[in-house]
Design goal:
26% of the residues lie in helices and 21% in strands. It is an alpha/beta fold and 383 residues long. Its EC number is 3.5.4.26, 1.1.1.193.
């Protein structure tokens, strides 16, 4: 196993994916998932407390400023936590922030063992939480389902390591690579579902799990999308972000709800939007815009179109993850999902961590273009 006092280089040693530790950590990850899209700038974290082979406490972090997952799980466990094992998807914090240190809560509850999925990239923690637990005499194991936990925390890790949100490019296209039909004048036809019901339900779940959702001005003018989470039980609508260099998006558009952001150029006249309560973010480049969204504590961004915006993000190397829904339909002439400069086949972007999943008649192909940030430099090493 990968112990916290192991020498540099052994952090990535893999823990077996079978057995009780993996099973209980899977339950902790399920708890953490309940906070997706709700915790920024904090990470989604889950915890279960186990005593005698039974889960006696469960908890997740609901939002910034509220207690962390460990606190909720320990409250539910009560005295049964003493001598038990806590499974936590992220290293317990060891510093005072908006809430007291969770490492101290675990120590005070009398937990005998703590199993951690992944170390915290926050330089205020970065191994300090685990060292604090071990110094108090607790048995600590690190690395159980680390890859799964790291993927779940992608937004938080991106915000800490890069100062910008984790960017997910989503699009739905026909088998011949079209996202919309074209009118006779060459403009997109507008509204119309490419994929089936199961794929659309999955998209609504993705929206619920992301901090923000983005479209370009062309998509807004053509479709007037609401960008909500229709039909998701307990769902919350992500924060809308409109990339519009000329600030031409009408104030009657359905996206303008509380928290909406207009990303526009430094020279654009966005006074009417600002007066209407829209957050105006001025940026000359896409990297600058993403850093601005990071300062607004947006940790994850779902790009929903159109092809110009997706193509610009891809050309700038700012797409971290791709989720492509493919319908078994042939359209012929139509709009491609990505619009950008021509490049030779040898320069094509290749996805890693590839997944293929059927969704009714459609197929989801997803993968990464950038790795999720983990520990950085000396923060990954033990003293």
């Amino acid at each position: 196993m990968c112990e916290v006092n192991a020498p540099p280089g052994t952090w990535v040693e893999k823990i077996p994916l079978a057995g009780p530790d993996a099973a209980f950590m899977t339950q902790a990850l399920a708890q953490a998932a309940r906070g997706l899209g709700r915790t920024a700038p904090n990470p989604p974290v889950g915890c279960v407390v186990v005593r005698g082979g039974d889960i006696v406490g469960r908890g997740f972090h609901p939002r910034a400023g509220e207690p962390h997952a460990e606190v909720f799980a320990l409250r539910e466990a009560g005295e049964q936590a003493r001598g038990g094992t806590a499974y936590v998807t992220l290293e317990p914090c060891s510093h005072f922030g908006r809430t007291p240190p969770c490492a101290d809560a675990l120590i005070g509850a009398g937990v005998a063992r703590v199993v951690v999925a992944a170390l915290d990239p926050d330089p205020r923690v970065s191994g300090a939480g685990v060292r604090r637990l071990r110094a108090a005499g607790l048995d600590v194991t690190v690395g159980v389902l680390e890859d799964e936990a790291t993927a779940q925390q992608a937004g938080f890790r991106s915000l800490v390591a890069r100062g910008r949100p984790w960017v997910v490019a989503k699009y739905a296209m026909t088998l011949d690579g079209k996202i919309a039909a074209l009118r006779a004048d060459g403009t997109p036809e507008g509204r119309g579902a490419v994929t089936g019901e199961q794929a659309r339900e999955r998209v609504m779940r993705w929206r619920d799990e992301q901090d923000a959702i983005a479209v370009g001005s062309g998509t807004l003018l053509a479709d007037d999308p609401a960008l909500t989470t229709r039909g998701v039980p307990g769902g919350r609508d992500p924060r809308p972000v409109v990339f519009d260099r000329r600030a031409r998006a009408p104030l009657t558009a359905r996206v303008w709800r509380p928290g909406a952001v207009l990303v526009t150029s430094p020279a654009a006249d966005a006074r009417a939007h600002a007066a209407a309560g829209v957050q105006v973010l001025r940026a000359a480049t896409l990297p600058e815009a993403l850093r601005g969204l990071g300062r607004l504590e947006i940790s994850s961004l779902l790009l929903e179109g159109g092809s110009g915006l997706l193509g610009a993000f891809l050309a700038a190397g700012l797409v971290d993850e791709v989720r492509a829904l493919i319908a078994p339909r042939l359209l012929g002439a139509g709009l491609p999902p990505l619009d950008g400069p021509l490049r030779p086949l040898g320069q094509a972007e290749t996805l890693s961590h590839l997944r293929v999943e059927p969704l009714g008649p459609d197929v989801l192909i997803s993968g990464l273009l950038n790795e999720v940030p983990r520990l950085q430099g000396a923060a990954a090493r033990e003293e």
